[in-house]
Amino acid sequence: MLYKNIGEIPINLKGRVAIKLHMGDRGNKTHISPKDVSVLIEKIRAKGGDPYLVDTITLYPRERSTREGYLMVARENGFGDFPIVIARDDVFVEKDGFRIPKDIADADSLIVLSHATGHVLMGFAGAIKNLSIGCVNKYSKRRIHEPMRPLYDEGLCKKCGVCAEACKYGYIKLNDKVEINLKDCHGCRRCVRSCPTGAIHIGKKALENNFELFSESAKAVLSLFKPENVIYINVLKNITELCDCVKDSGDIVCRDMGYLTGKNPLKLDMETPELIRKQNPDTLDFKTWNLFVNIAKKHL
Asked: Residue 73 — pLDDT band, cuts 50, 70, 90?
C-alpha cells in the first residue's frame, strides 16, 4: 500500500525492533530522512517496542568500512539523536552459508526501511538489496560479489590505464603490467565498462550467479524472523540514479511518491520500479532488474 506520510503506516511490533536502513555515505544528501526515522521510532515506542537503527560496515575501503567510521558518518548525516548499532562483523549467526551479524539476528522484530533508487549492479535497489548485502558481514559480502570480480586477458590489454582511472577504490594499478586486487572488489563493473579492448571483463554467467547469491542471502536473513515480525517499507522520495553508497548519487529521476509497504520484499520491489517507470520509463536499467527478478522468484 502506498502512503503519503510515514506516520500513517500501521506498526505494532514488540520487543527489540531493528530498523535496518542505509544511513548514507559521507556527504550524501538524498538518503532516508532522519525526520522519517524519528516518526517510526516514536510509533514503535508508543506500542511498547524498543527500536534501534542498524546497518553493517562496507566491504570497500571508505569511512563506513569500520564501525567507528560509519557511526561518525551516521551522526554527520543527521542520525546522531537515535540509538544506533553498527553491527559487529565478527559476531554472527551462520545460516545457509551466509553470516548475519547477531546485532541484526537477535532482534525480536525487523523493519526493512529501504530507499528506492537505481543501482549500478542490479538496476534497482530496494528491500532485497537492503536485506541481502546490507544484513551480512564482510565475509558474506565477498562471497556474494565474487562472481562479479573482473577477469583479465593480458593479450588484449593495451596498457592504456583507463581501468585504473575508473576504479574508485584503487583496486587496479598500472605499473609494468595491470595489477588487480580482487580481495574486496564488489563488482561494480566500472573497470569493465571503461576498458576499450575487453581485456577487463566478467565471466559469462557472472551476473546470473551474483543475483542467485543476492537472493539466497536475503532468504537466509528472513529465515531468522517470523513473517509477522517483519515490516517492509520502500521510501519513494529523492529517488536517484544511484544508491546511497556514494556521495553523489546522481539526478533525481522522478517526483516523490511517498512510502510503499508490502508483505513480501520481492513483490514490493517489483511494484516499486513500476511506479517509477510510469513517471520516467528511461530512468532505470529495467532489463537488468527484470533478469534479477526472474532469478529471485526461485528463492523469495
From this structure: very high
